[in-house]
Amino acid sequence: MKYEWKKQAKELYLPKNKPELVTIPDFKFFMIDGKGNPNSEEFSEAIGALYSLAYAVKMLPKKNSIPEGYYDFTVFPLEGVWDLAEEARTKEVLDKNSLIYTIMIRQPDFVTEKLAQEVINSVKLKKPHPLLDQVRFDSLEEGLCVQMLHQGSYDDEPRSFAIMEDYCVQNNLRRLSKIHREIYLSDVRKTQPEKLKTVLRFNVEYHGAFAE
Prior knowledge:
Layout lengths: L4 H4 L1 H4 L6 E16 L5 H18 L19 E7 L14 E9 L5 H14 L9 E16 L5 H14 L2 E3 L4 E5 L12 E10 L6
Antiparallel strand pairs: 1-3, 1-4, 2-3, 2-6, 4-7, 5-7, 6-7
Helix pairs in contact: 3-4
């Protein structure tokens, strides 16, 4: 049976356009760390490098290389974890050149550290790209989070974050940091800004009388 994240993991990838509380387990990813404007050519190149690896994993059976536990799956969407450099945090206007990010694509459970490295090495031989040397394979467990679907331009995200933070106040939750997660459900090259769909997520904890 094919694993399709839009069907089997709706609660993680297809939330409603209102805040909700979720617990995100440990998942494995191909990741690239960087700093700078997401509208840059380097950022686009990094996305391409990640997708080349994700599709290489999916196509392994066609290369007569079927890993133990392999199952067919839909390639997962691009995700990003976003922070801001210390020197830019006090500025009133967002300086996109000061953004710090980790972009990543989740991998199925059967992908081990060994298999991930084999895939990276294989892609380096067939489609060499300098950014492949910056890719790491790692796991990430977000834990307790508030998330919601944001529809519209990335520049309008503060509007949704304000709604999410108000939800936290009403539900005795505290946002742990300004770092946040984004999951990109739309192809920005083919979608009008007002129709872009992005999952927004940040870590929280209970506080006050509700804290453990």
